[in-house]
Amino acid sequence: MHKDTQERKKRRTAYLLLILIGLGIAAGRIATVTSREGDTAFLSANDRSRWCTVAALVEDRTYEIDRQINLKGAKNRTPWNTIDKVRHRGEDGKLHYYSSKPPLFPTLVAGVYFFVNSLLGLSMTEHPIYATRIVLALVNLPLLALFYFGTIGSIERVCGNSWARQSLALATVFGTMLLPFSMTLNNHLVAAAFTALTMWIYLLACEKLDDSVTGTSTVMPWGVYLLAGLAAAFTAANELPALSMMVLWFVLFVWVDTRSLLPFTAGLIIVAAAFFGTNYAAHGSLRPPYAHRGNGDLIAEIDASLDPIPSEQIHREIVQRNLIQSSQKITVKLSDEKGRWSVRSDDDQLFSLTRTASGNWALHYWDDWYEYPNSYWQDGRRRGVDLGEPSRFVYFLNMTIGHHGIFSLTPIFLLVPLGLIKGLSFGPHDYRRFTLAVLIASVVCLLFYLARPLIDRNYGGVSCCFRWVLWFTPMWLIMLAPILDEYSDKPQKQGIFHAMLALSVFSMSTALQTPWQSPWIYQFWSFLGWLGG
Asked: What pLDDT, on a 0 to 100 scale, did the predictor assign at position 420?
């Protein structure tokens, strides 16, 4: 027993050293992170969008980001401007710009910025390099630590030998694409960290409640299950497809302990209330911005015989419903979206006009927040991967083994399918159920991305990997445990895993300058001319 305790202490010391090295690398990158132009610490339109919300909340007490995106920098640049924005009417009745990102996470980050601003007197809009770096460190380093501790703590519970534990710990710290995302404000690190926390609590509960392991059954405090519910729901609040795993977490926890039902549900409700509450506070709608990409409710259907565009009838319909004053004139022009016209009044009220299946005119409330002057997201303006992949088959190949591939960029995950098969066949029932849940969620999410329309089949835009599945990282690492346990006494297979890990570390290291770049495979294929330029 004494020897076992000593070995456990040595492992913990080794884990702590690994984690500190990983956090040290992340801290060093955050301390020097700078935009390409050198005037901010923002790395892409993606993080600029969130930073705009953070700054607007603290400095202007609003979710409107008009001031931020119009700030001028050197050479008359607008370093805060971002393509990840939407435009809609605010509480004052005027059109304003807002971040297209769900506001819950930026609202929480704004709390950190409020503390920094109050304590140090640093304004992000006046000091966009150092103020941003300080807030980023206070947010991302704890998140990265949570991912490390949660995942490695789970590894301790599922791995059966020292080599497997050590190898998986190395993979956790250096072998995934999460480390590069620690230098930028993003939702993927958040989701991975809280997935790791949920997983650790679940495996802890399974261990404490299993008499065959501990010899006694321990009652888990309700607060731990509440935390699990909060973590599972917060993951889904930052990664919409993680809703599938949130439902599965609920089933897993209730299955292992029915006493978890109420506290876990309470955690879900708290996060749901915060998610929809901040969304309503920001946009006056319970639906997030990406759900506002079409036509609103029907106002009236106008006879098809009134052709060409029946401006007078449109004006009459709008005035009769007190939507504009009769003195207001309207302008009808072709929309950026095919088959639609925009109707604008003198006071900037917007409506949309389309044709129905029967050929009549359909007048709707305007509900396309992504169409505004010079919007990047309209047809003809997107470029590169943002054009979308027409072939779903090619999309599947590239997101698995191709230029954005889960397996090609992180080869250690080539063993995940084997781990899923083995995990379903061997081990405790709680682990088998967990494995089945991971398998179901993985398949559901991959099918979800394959089923997306053309505009969304873009591999996550300009990013160092297929970033939308990064929240699976803690669970996929745990799926490797039964395979590595099997390799523990097979030197050749250990060597194969070491080679896979080395290649995974290589991919990770290519993105340490910024995660907002195309994967190294994509860049190399472009150099060879395989991607059309």
From this structure: 96
